[in-house]
Amino acid sequence: MRIERFRWWHIADVVPMEQDLFGDEKWTGAMFWNELAQRNFYVVALDGDDDEVLGYAGLSATLDEAWVQNIAVRRSVQRRGTGRRLLEALLDEAHRLGIKQTLLEVAVDNEPAQRLYATYDFEPVGVRRGYYQPSNTDALVMMRDG
Protein backbone atom coordinates (compact mmCIF):
# COMPACT_ATOMS: atom_id res chain seq x y z
CA MET A 1 0.00 0.00 0.00
CA ARG A 2 1.17 3.52 -0.70
CA ILE A 3 -0.19 6.97 0.17
CA GLU A 4 -0.40 9.57 -2.61
CA ARG A 5 -2.12 12.89 -3.21
CA PHE A 6 -5.80 12.57 -4.08
CA ARG A 7 -6.35 13.65 -7.69
CA TRP A 8 -9.52 14.33 -9.65
CA TRP A 9 -9.42 10.91 -11.31
CA HIS A 10 -9.78 9.24 -7.90
CA ILE A 11 -13.25 10.73 -7.44
CA ALA A 12 -14.85 8.00 -9.58
CA ASP A 13 -13.41 5.38 -7.19
CA VAL A 14 -14.31 7.09 -3.92
CA VAL A 15 -17.95 7.95 -4.69
CA PRO A 16 -19.08 4.28 -4.61
CA MET A 17 -17.04 3.81 -1.43
CA GLU A 18 -18.89 6.77 0.10
CA GLN A 19 -22.24 5.18 -0.81
CA ASP A 20 -21.23 1.86 0.73
CA LEU A 21 -19.83 3.36 3.93
CA PHE A 22 -22.14 6.30 4.56
CA GLY A 23 -25.37 5.68 2.65
CA ASP A 24 -27.63 8.75 2.66
CA GLU A 25 -24.91 10.77 4.43
CA LYS A 26 -22.38 10.22 1.64
CA TRP A 27 -20.39 12.92 -0.03
CA THR A 28 -21.05 13.47 -3.72
CA GLY A 29 -18.55 13.75 -6.54
CA ALA A 30 -19.25 17.50 -6.62
CA MET A 31 -18.30 17.79 -2.96
CA PHE A 32 -14.94 16.16 -3.65
CA TRP A 33 -14.39 18.42 -6.67
CA ASN A 34 -15.06 21.39 -4.37
CA GLU A 35 -12.57 20.15 -1.77
CA LEU A 36 -9.88 19.78 -4.43
CA ALA A 37 -10.73 23.18 -5.96
CA GLN A 38 -10.24 24.77 -2.53
CA ARG A 39 -6.79 23.16 -2.45
CA ASN A 40 -7.50 21.22 0.71
CA PHE A 41 -5.01 18.45 1.42
CA TYR A 42 -6.39 15.06 0.37
CA VAL A 43 -4.63 11.72 0.08
CA VAL A 44 -5.55 8.24 -1.12
CA ALA A 45 -4.26 4.85 -0.04
CA LEU A 46 -3.58 2.77 -3.14
CA ASP A 47 -3.06 -0.96 -3.43
CA GLY A 48 0.54 -1.55 -4.45
CA ASP A 49 -0.40 -4.13 -7.07
CA ASP A 50 -3.21 -2.58 -9.08
CA ASP A 51 -3.62 1.01 -7.82
CA GLU A 52 -7.09 0.22 -6.43
CA VAL A 53 -8.20 2.98 -4.04
CA LEU A 54 -8.32 1.43 -0.56
CA GLY A 55 -9.19 4.62 1.29
CA TYR A 56 -8.90 8.38 1.37
CA ALA A 57 -8.63 11.24 3.83
CA GLY A 58 -8.75 15.03 3.77
CA LEU A 59 -7.58 17.99 5.81
CA SER A 60 -8.68 21.61 5.68
CA ALA A 61 -6.25 24.10 7.23
CA THR A 62 -6.23 27.77 8.12
CA LEU A 63 -3.34 29.70 9.65
CA ASP A 64 -3.16 27.79 12.94
CA GLU A 65 -6.04 25.32 12.93
CA ALA A 66 -6.84 22.26 10.83
CA TRP A 67 -9.92 20.06 10.50
CA VAL A 68 -9.86 16.45 9.43
CA GLN A 69 -12.57 16.48 6.76
CA ASN A 70 -12.96 12.74 6.38
CA ILE A 71 -11.22 9.42 6.59
CA ALA A 72 -12.73 6.41 4.86
CA VAL A 73 -11.43 2.91 4.22
CA ARG A 74 -12.97 0.31 1.93
CA ARG A 75 -14.78 -2.32 4.05
CA SER A 76 -12.74 -5.18 2.61
CA VAL A 77 -9.48 -3.74 3.99
CA GLN A 78 -10.60 -2.23 7.28
CA ARG A 79 -8.64 -3.06 10.44
CA ARG A 80 -5.38 -3.47 8.52
CA GLY A 81 -3.77 -0.11 9.30
CA THR A 82 -5.01 1.84 6.28
CA GLY A 83 -6.95 4.38 8.36
CA ARG A 84 -3.95 4.82 10.64
CA ARG A 85 -1.65 5.52 7.68
CA LEU A 86 -4.11 8.01 6.22
CA LEU A 87 -4.46 9.82 9.56
CA GLU A 88 -0.68 9.96 9.92
CA ALA A 89 -0.40 11.56 6.47
CA LEU A 90 -2.88 14.26 7.53
CA LEU A 91 -1.09 14.88 10.82
CA ASP A 92 2.25 15.08 9.03
CA GLU A 93 0.80 17.78 6.76
CA ALA A 94 -0.62 19.68 9.76
CA HIS A 95 2.83 19.55 11.37
CA ARG A 96 4.49 20.74 8.15
CA LEU A 97 2.08 23.69 8.10
CA GLY A 98 2.81 24.58 11.73
CA ILE A 99 -0.77 23.96 12.82
CA LYS A 100 -1.42 24.57 16.52
CA GLN A 101 -4.67 22.58 16.84
CA THR A 102 -6.18 19.78 14.77
CA LEU A 103 -9.86 18.98 15.17
CA LEU A 104 -12.32 16.46 13.80
CA GLU A 105 -15.89 15.29 14.12
CA VAL A 106 -16.73 11.62 14.52
CA ALA A 107 -20.10 9.92 14.98
CA VAL A 108 -20.76 9.33 18.67
CA ASP A 109 -21.46 5.66 17.90
CA ASN A 110 -18.20 5.12 15.96
CA GLU A 111 -16.14 3.80 18.85
CA PRO A 112 -13.39 2.17 16.72
CA ALA A 113 -12.60 5.53 15.10
CA GLN A 114 -12.69 7.31 18.45
CA ARG A 115 -10.18 4.81 19.85
CA LEU A 116 -7.90 5.36 16.84
CA TYR A 117 -8.04 9.13 17.27
CA ALA A 118 -7.34 8.83 21.01
CA THR A 119 -4.09 6.96 20.26
CA TYR A 120 -3.00 10.13 18.42
CA ASP A 121 -3.83 12.33 21.43
CA PHE A 122 -7.23 13.55 20.22
CA GLU A 123 -9.49 14.33 23.16
CA PRO A 124 -13.25 15.02 23.22
CA VAL A 125 -14.04 18.74 23.48
CA GLY A 126 -17.72 18.91 22.55
CA VAL A 127 -20.76 17.41 20.87
CA ARG A 128 -22.66 18.64 17.81
CA ARG A 129 -26.25 17.48 18.24
CA GLY A 130 -27.87 16.04 15.12
CA TYR A 131 -24.77 16.80 13.03
CA TYR A 132 -25.04 13.88 10.62
CA GLN A 133 -28.11 14.08 8.40
CA PRO A 134 -30.50 12.55 7.63
CA SER A 135 -29.84 10.11 10.51
CA ASN A 136 -29.69 12.96 13.05
CA THR A 137 -26.65 11.30 14.66
CA ASP A 138 -24.59 13.40 17.06
CA ALA A 139 -20.93 14.13 16.31
CA LEU A 140 -18.24 14.08 18.94
CA VAL A 141 -15.75 16.91 18.37
CA MET A 142 -12.18 15.86 19.19
CA MET A 143 -9.04 18.00 19.29
CA ARG A 144 -5.30 17.62 19.67
CA ASP A 145 -2.47 20.09 19.88
CA GLY A 146 -0.45 20.23 16.70
TrEMBL record:
<keyword id="KW-0687">Ribonucleoprotein</keyword>
<dbReference type="InterPro" id="IPR006464">
    <property type="entry name" value="AcTrfase_RimI/Ard1"/>
</dbReference>
<keyword id="KW-0808">Transferase</keyword>
<dbReference type="InterPro" id="IPR000182">
    <property type="entry name" value="GNAT_dom"/>
</dbReference>
<feature type="domain" description="N-acetyltransferase">
    <location>
        <begin position="1"/>
        <end position="146"/>
    </location>
</feature>
<dbReference type="GO" id="GO:0005840">
    <property type="term" value="C:ribosome"/>
</dbReference>
<dbReference type="InterPro" id="IPR050832">
    <property type="entry name" value="Bact_Acetyltransf"/>
</dbReference>
<keyword id="KW-0012">Acyltransferase</keyword>
<comment type="similarity">
    <text>Belongs to the acetyltransferase family. RimI subfamily.</text>
</comment>
<keyword id="KW-0963">Cytoplasm</keyword>
<protein>
    <recommendedName>
        <fullName>[Ribosomal protein bS18]-alanine N-acetyltransferase</fullName>
        <ecNumber>2.3.1.266</ecNumber>
    </recommendedName>
</protein>
<keyword id="KW-0689">Ribosomal protein</keyword>
<dbReference type="Pfam" id="PF00583">
    <property type="entry name" value="Acetyltransf_1"/>
</dbReference>
<comment type="function">
    <text>Acetylates the N-terminal alanine of ribosomal protein bS18.</text>
</comment>
<dbReference type="InterPro" id="IPR016181">
    <property type="entry name" value="Acyl_CoA_acyltransferase"/>
</dbReference>
